[in-house]
C-alpha cells in the first residue's frame, strides 16, 4: 500500500534492484484516447509481477514484464490515490466512493459512498479485516463487505491516515492543520486543538 505498510513507514527491507542503466518499459500512458490508464497521479501497487494502477479514467492491472493489460475497471469518478492490495482484493478510493475489486479480474465486489478528497496520502489503509478511509474524518469499514464499523469526525477534511497502535489522521483546510488519534474502536484518544498544542483526551 502507499507508504509500504499501514503505519506509512516507507521502509522496505533491502532487496535486489535493477541496475541504473536497466531498460525502461512504459505500460501506461497519459490520456484516455491512447488506451492507457489516463493521468496517473499516485504510485501503483506491485505484487507477484502485477502492477495495479489507479488512473483518472480507469483502474487496471498490468503484467510488469510485458505491459499486457490483464483487466480494467472504469470508476464512476476520478481517482488520484494509490490502490491497496490485501487478501486478494484491490481497494481504491475515488473522489466520492471507495471500491473493492477482485484482484484477478477487476470485478467490483462492493462500493460505498465516501472517498478521497485529494492527494495520494488519502489512500486507504487495510489492517487485518478492516479498511480505514479518510472521508471527512475517518471511517473504518469491514474489508470483506464494506459495512461501516465506525466513523469519527475531524474538524477539517482528512488528508491522510496511518494505522499503528492507534489510528492517526491528519486533516487541514486553508493552512489550518489538525492531527487526531483514535483507538482501533473509533474512540477519541487525543487531538491537536491549536497549532503546536496537543490535548490528551484519554490515557494511553
From TrEMBL:
Show the taxonomic lineage.
Archaea, Methanobacteriati, Methanobacteriota, Stenosarchaea group, Halobacteria
**Pfam families, per database record:** PQQ_2
Q: Please name the source species.
A: Natrinema thermotolerans
Where is the region Disordered? 1-21
Pyrrolo-quinoline quinone repeat domain boundaries: 31-192
Gene3D superfamilies with a match to the protein in the record: YVTN repeat-like/Quinoprotein amine dehydrogenase
Under InterPro entries, the record lists: PQQ_b-propeller_rpt, PQQ_rpt_dom, Quinoprotein_ADH-like_sf, WD40/YVTN_repeat-like_dom_sf
Domain of life of the organism in this record? Answer: Archaea
Q: Which UniProt keywords apply?
A: Plasmid
How far does the signal peptide extend, from start to end residue?
none
Protein name per the record: PQQ-like beta-propeller repeat protein
Residue ranges of coiled coil: none
Amino acid at each position: 500500500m502507499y507508504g509500504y505498510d499501514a503505519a506509512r513507514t516507507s521502509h522496505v527491507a533491502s532487496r535486489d534492484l535493477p541496475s541504473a542503466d536497466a531498460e525502461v518499459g512504459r505500460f501506461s500512458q497519459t490520456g484516455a484516447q491512447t488506451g492507457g490508464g489516463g493521468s496517473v497521479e499516485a504510485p501503483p501497487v506491485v505484487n507477484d509481477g502485477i502492477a495495479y494502477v489507479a488512473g483518472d479514467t480507469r483502474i487496471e492491472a498490468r503484467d510488469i514484464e510485458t505491459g499486457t493489460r490483464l483487466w480494467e475497471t472504469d470508476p464512476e469518478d476520478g481517482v488520484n490515490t494509490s490502490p491497496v492490495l490485501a487478501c486478494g482484493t484491490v481497494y481504491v478510493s475515488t473522489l466520492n466512493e471507495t471500491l473493492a475489486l477482485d484482484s484477478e479480474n477487476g470485478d467490483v465486489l462492493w462500493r460505498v459512498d465516501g472517498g478521497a478528497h485529494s492527494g495520494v496520502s488519502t489512500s486507504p489503509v487495510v489492517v487485518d479485516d478492516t479498511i480505514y478511509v479518510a472521508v471527512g474524518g475517518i471511517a473504518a469499514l469491514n474489508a470483506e463487505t464494506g459495512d461501516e464499523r465506525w466513523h469519527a469526525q475531524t474538524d477539517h477534511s482528512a488528508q491522510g491516515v496511518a494505522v499503528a497502535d492507534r489510528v492517526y489522521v491528519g486533516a487541514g483546510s486553508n493552512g489550518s492543520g489538525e492531527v487526531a488519534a483514535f483507538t482501533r474502536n473509533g474512540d477519541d484518544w487525543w487531538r491537536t486543538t491549536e497549532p503546536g498544542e496537543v490535548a490528551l483526551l484519554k490515557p494511553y
